[in-house]
Amino acid sequence: MSSSAAENRTPENSVDGGVVTQTPSASHRRTWMGYLTIPVILGLVCLGLFLYVQSRELDSIEQRSLNVGAITAALQEHVVLTAVSTIVTLIIAVPLGILLTRPLTRRIRPFIIGVLTILQAVPTIAILVLLAVAFLFLGFQAAIVGLVLYAIIPVLLNTMVGLEQVDGNVLEAGRGMGLSRMQVLRRLELPLAVPVILAGVRTALVINVGTATLVTYINAGGLGDIIVAGLSTNRVLVQIVGAALTAVLALLIDYIAGIAEDFLRPKGL
Amino acid sequence: MFRKSMWGTVVGTAAAATLLLSACGDGGGESPNAGLLDGAELTAGSKEFTESIVLSQITSKALEDAGASIEDQTGISGSATVREALESDEVDFYWDYTGTGWVNILGHTTKDAPKDLFKAVSEADAKNGISWLDPAPFENTYRIAVKSDFAEKNGLETMSDAAKFIGANEDQGKVCAASEFINRDDGLPGLEQAYGFEFSDVVELDLNLIYPQVGEKCQFGEVFSTDARVKANDMKVLEDDKDFFVQYQGAMTLRQETLDEYPEIAKIMAPISEKLTDEVVMELNGRVDTEGEMPEDVAEEWLEDEGLIAS
């Protein structure tokens, strides 16, 4: 795998493996019609789902999961879980990525990445259960710990690759113009690394939407409540609604992140 | 010369062994069912929790003892999945519960479960081509449990006591429960209705996380009546004084066509089912859950000790 800015030559000390790439969108600024396509499709899916559920005779078990109150609560919990875990991931992973690309930390770099990769290899559900059993740690905070541990790696690696694929000549030119190291980082490196970093963030977001369905097992709610309720009572309709809403939410969040990418990308890249 | 002597030794040893074996034949047990199922090839299924696995292992060992060869597919996740596997010939038998049959398989809700649940379920399920063998006496029903010292301190014996207590102590009325119990009419919603109270908060957890959490995150917990971890974790099961919970008697289920082909299965299993009382099942569960033995070993040992299979 290579960074999504594949055209750029990567310096020798680049991180390899585990980098998230995305197909770059054709144009940076889409037409407004282009912006509308995905929300319209997702809206239609939700509408179809709603009408289908409306048309069915629901028994008492289905009614318990498929009512406006329950679905709204689950959606809200899920969005909060995803948002908070992604923000915490960013707060940890981006500065760590910057630190690990500085010459000072060259020695400990492989060690840190190794540890995080091992942590990511542990399934989230195992981390959640471990927290619950070993530390009797449950609920929202435990869920965030589990989600963050899982999402750190893609954001961290993309941050490092994004910074490292910046052309060394540009940085040198910056230093030559009298900018300090900090200024070079802020004005040149980070803006140029944004597209690759954001690809990692998008991935983290989508991973978190999916993984957050598991936290129902530790009293942290979310759309997993609906899916698991359907599974445990053998009600297919409930399972479908929970799974479809999760998919819609993942696509919607990815779409919003895509728009953010369009606007955050430095002009001329 | 050498050859001859070697053959002599072999023949001699064999003869001696045969004599020895036939001498202890009466003591160590020819199986009463030997040969009943010669040539039968069956696949064992079960749900993912200990009790279901142990019951299927007991069945497997008993059928093997009668000459069947059994493929082990136990430990399938979810009641619905294993039932699906039975209907589509993936597995040939597993143990289910009358209450689960009524609610999950037949799609009823249990506002008014019939008195004779086994009869109702087995008759209705016959239309789906599934046969329920005569049930065992044990019942693995839902119960609410609390820590023993908590029960003592607050004088909790029955669910009615708990309802009164929670009414007076809002801050100590949390219940830990798993998704299925929370969503089934024969679970939490119906229970609260029957006793006219509400838990102050529901903590939704994976089934196995409930036991360590009672007395921590919540005062009350959903448990299974035959789960050995109730005793191991020093819990008291509250009596269902209004008889709200439906029956969950265990019975072996298999496709009618399998039973038609091997009617001996029912005959072999009847004396075994009879011996599976609440105490026995709880003890077998405990040997796996708290003492860490393997389900197949526990099953085999119990059958041998009871003289149900040849040792």
UniProtKB/TrEMBL annotation, chain A:
Membrane-spanning ranges: 32-53, 79-99, 111-137, 143-163, 190-216, 236-257
InterPro entries: ABC_transp_perm/SBD, MetI-like, MetI-like_sf
Key word Transport present: yes
PANTHER family membership: GLYCINE BETAINE/L-PROLINE TRANSPORT SYSTEM PERMEASE PROTEIN PROW, OSMOPROTECTANT IMPORT PERMEASE PROTEIN OSMW
GO biological process, one term: glycine betaine transport
KW Transmembrane (keyword) present: yes
GO terms for cellular component: plasma membrane
Family in the record: Belongs to the binding-protein-dependent transport system permease family.
Subcellular location: Cell membrane; Membrane
Native organism: Brevibacterium marinum
Domain (ABC transmembrane type-1): residue spans on this chain: 75-257
Keywords: Membrane, Transmembrane, Transmembrane helix, Transport
Protein's membrane topology: Multi-pass membrane protein
Origin superkingdom: Bacteria
Protein name, entry field: Osmoprotectant transport system permease protein
UniProtKB/TrEMBL annotation, chain B:
Cleaved signal peptide residues: 1-23
One term of GO molecular function: transmembrane transporter activity
ABC-type glycine betaine transport system substrate-binding domain ranges (all copies): 41-304
A single cellular component GO annotation: ATP-binding cassette (ABC) transporter complex
Family annotation (InterPro entries): ABC_Gly_betaine_transp_sub-bd
The protein, known as: Osmoprotectant transport system substrate-binding protein
Alphabetical UniProt keywords: Signal
Keyword RNA-binding part of the UniProt annotation: no
Gene3D superfamilies documented for this protein: Osmoprotection protein (prox), domain 2, Periplasmic binding protein-like II
The keyword Ligase is assigned to this record: no
